[in-house]
Amino acid sequence: MKRRKLAVAAGFCLSFLLGTLLNVLFIPAFDQQQQQQQQPAAAAAALGRRRRGDLAQQIRERYEEVLRYQQPQRAAAAAAAGARLPARPLERRLMDLAPRRLASAASSSSSWSWERVPSAPGAAKLELSLGPPRLGCGDLGNVSDVRYLGSGYTKAVYRAVLNRSLAVALKAVDFGGHDVERCVALYGALEDCYRLAACKVVKEMVLLQRLRHPNVLQLYGYCYQDSNAISDTLTTITELGSPLEMIQLLQTSWEDRFRICFSLVRLLHYLAHSPLGSVTLLDFRPRQFVIVDGELKVTDLDDASIEETSCTSSRDCFMEFPARNFTLPCSLEGKCQSMNEKRNLYNAYRFFFTYLLPHSAPASLRPLLDVIVNATGELHWGIDTTVAHLERVLHLYKSGLYLENTTRTPRSGYKRMPEATIVNENYRCWPSYHHKGCLLSVFDVNEAMEVCESHSQCKAFVLTNQTTWTGRQLVYFKMGSMSIMSDRDKTTYVKVLN
Fold first, then answer.
1. Are 269 and 387 in contact (CB under 8 A)?
2. How far apart are CA 29 and CA 26, in angstroms?
3. What mean pLDDT is predicted for residues 72-89?
4. Could you tell me the end-to-end alpha-carbon distance of the chain, in angstroms, rounded to an integer?
5. Interior/surface letters 290-306, b for 16+ CB within 10 angstroms, e for the rest
6. Could you count the other beta carbons within 10 Å of the beta carbon of residue 228?
């Protein structure tokens, strides 16, 4: 009996010892392995939370930037007073693009004003209205002839005809573009990445409304609709322009090239004195502009900025370009003086003036144009001085004063034939308004005779009743006069051979 009790006790003790040993040897290893498996998952979850927070912060910052381009003074004053104005459709959509907490904060604390905007000194008063758009989703329901035009980092642009009558440009976030694809690869959240990109479209839409000028593209309207499994995707409807092709521009007349440069300078003058303050185009390239009826217009404003660079000394006011650097003075207010204006002006010089202004200009105007190109290339002038000098060139050209020092007596005689034209007998010249003939603009008949004298092929010319944007008359130059026909709107001059 004693032996049995001893055996039982010994077995119990042995079991206890074995259990303790197993617990010491194996259980910690199991916990460690489990912890090692859980750590990557926890780290991934923490990383995901940080990334989602980072993405939400980016959306919040872009949304707040859009709000700054609204009427900030009136909105800030009303918000400080606790005033609350009813939200209009676009404002509600702006709130939809923001994270929920920010949207609710905006709806409770921000105030809005869409009334008349006080203009900057020298600027025309603007009527700002983001109320009912001229065109909307109903018009997109009757769309035809849709063609893809191109895309950038954020947006895709399409040409379309609305209601079988109006050709427009449609802009929307490009789901296959660099911005969305990079964001999705980093954060894995398509809808939030769309919101981030859409804030740039909304910013451009607001700026197109606030910056009303003949050289800013017109915003016709916008539409929110569900697309790609994302609710409320935004499409803007704007004026349609032709892409700016520098090679083609170099083949046009000097008069048309001067018009492009003059349009650009008028635009930059307006941006320097806009109701928002001095606006700079951070992404300043020819592709950001289009031509509408011969006028240059800026179409891409999502990278525009009204922030002037802060400084403590002139060393902080350094502007770097591929071929030239500049250092601007630091003002007493701690801002780099005219940096936004000067950045725009130098970009205008390096992308436009240096190529388009001097070449094939009238000989008497070239010295003035060379001064303009050199002064803007060295940033000796601001935009006000540059506008004044280009306006002087335009006045000389339109008035014919640039011809005062030229010979006005033709070497040959010409027979005038009213109400007559020459049908064929064309020759080509450069630059010409017509690719199959020689069609140029002149100030008067005497200049037409001078042009004909300078062309060895010219034996006659035909004055039309068509004029250019400066009011100059379009003239066909001909190599003969064998096919004369009656035409009430034209007058023919035939060279009299000695």
1. yes
2. 5
3. 44
4. 156
5. bbbeebbbbbbbbbbbb
6. 10
Compute the distance between CA of residue 320 and CA of residue 328 in angstroms, rounded to an integer. 11
- What is the rounded average pLDDT for all residues in the chain? 81
CB 491 within 8 A of CB 459: no
283 is catalytic: yes
Asked whether residue 121 carries a pLDDT value surpassing 60, the answer given is: no
Instruction: Single out the residue of 185, 179, 177 nearest to residue 197, CA to CA.
Output: 179
CB 161 within 8 A of CB 237: no
- Marked catalytic residue, from 96, 232, 256, 283: 283
CA dist., res. 196 & res. 57, Å (int): 10
Residue 428, Cβ density class (10 Å: 0-12 exposed, 13-18 middle, ≥19 buried): exposed
pLDDT in tens, 235-285: 999 999 999 988 888 888 999 999 999 999 999 999 999 999 999 999 999
pLDDT in tens, 309-329: 999 999 999 999 998 899 999
Residues 394-422 have pLDDT tens digits of 999 999 999 977 666 667 789 999 999 99
**Could you check whether the bond before residue 431 is cis, i.e. omega within 30 degrees of 0?**
yes
Q: How far is the C-alpha of 384 from the C-alpha of 470, rounded, in Å?
A: 22
Q: The sheet that has 460-467: what strands, in order across it?
A: 413-422, 484-496, 460-467, 473-478, 438-442
Give φ, ψ of 123 to 5 degrees: -100, 150
Name, in order, each residue with C-beta under 8 angstroms of 390's C-beta and a sequence gap of 6 or more.
Answer: 261, 262, 265, 372
